[in-house]
């Protein structure tokens, strides 16, 4: 593909498609709807739970997550009290006991909770939910917060997977992103978790950050791969300073440009493949024995709000401010403001504010977009035998003539050149993106 085409395409802003419709297209949805959707869950039905802990010790300059600085310990305790209220209200809306197959603590920094707080939350969940004996119990950890006491406590709680925010190990980059974290900190956290018996590890990295180059990234990839985490995610930095005040601390003049980002994404993939990892979707890598690598190879990979997953549950219940729940009938997102969240859950309310009611055609589009994001390929004869997609096909034509996709007998597949730009192919099937450029991140 020509440099000029890369530049043109990679500079387009498109969603990351962790859901379709994306959260940006949600409409008002009320707690009554969530109550109805919760009541429809059947006995022993497999569900996933996501718990959002919206606090960190301090906020990194690049962060795009929903999190605030915990200025006092009491702030975190007040959040835990509110979360316990929400769990009680959600539980009282259930008409059956579901079975939890995946439990994920995200944030923010869940490791800001103390052992007593974790235990109270788990005890509250166990009153209404059965935990599957082989439940995947995962937590996002800031390596700087991992202590021997925490590692042992997490293992005691049944945590069997941890995701560490590594971001980059280069000192100059770390200074520019407000995240000072020498690699020794990552090594220590990794060892403590493994010694405690938590061996399934993921590292998160970011490319497209200030002062990163192809050379610094190659070095970062080698240093983190030497620690042999089963999984690595490497996201493209999404710089949206108009929406995230903390990102205004990043000097945009030292950010890599579109072409450099493109080259960085390529060197990350090239490095991890050389170091024994298999690429999974657009931004994950996994060692060959890992379930995610196996799912990617045999076409059973799924995508949810946390990214790529082996989870195939119909229902994901999100708890905590800003959490998104997924039900067979649609999506429901909680209010994001922690103060309002707390006031309302403490008054016994569900706090759904936005979401989406899935129509049959949305389900078809969601299936197509998910197949493209996970497998880089979709067969419309299987996915949507009844739908013509004339507009969509017209949108794909320029991508096809630039060598990004091949369309044959209604089978759409990305070429090797097209894989990094698969979000653009997916966007052709997104009815909500018809030429309107919104504040999404760059395609690469
Ligand atoms: C773990 C941290 C999270 C990341 N994303 C989310 C969390 C909790 C969830 C999230 N982020 C955004 C939304 C949309 C609704 C909103 O309130 O703004 C949700 C549900 C906003 C957002 N974050 C990023 C972008 C580009 C946007 C806006 C566009 C969009 O909705 O797609 C950047 C970003 N955040 C995270 C990653 C990994 C990432 C970029 C690679 C983490
Ligand atoms: C959950 C993961 O999301 C990533 N992350 C957080 N903020 C951003 C952003 N603005 N752009 C890209 N990735 C981000 C970090 O790698 C974190 O560990
Ligand atoms: S990247 Fe992690 S630690 Fe940093 S502010 Fe965001 S949620 Fe908190």
UniProtKB/TrEMBL annotation:
What's the protein name? Coproporphyrinogen-III oxidase
Stored NCBIfam families: hemN
Residues binding S-adenosyl-L-methionine 1, per UniProt: 50, 107, 140, 324
Role according to the record: Involved in the heme biosynthesis. Catalyzes the anaerobic oxidative decarboxylation of propionate groups of rings A and B of coproporphyrinogen III to yield the vinyl groups in protoporphyrinogen IX.
Oligomer and partners: Monomer.
* CDD domains from the UniProt entry: Radical_SAM
Root EC class? oxidoreductase
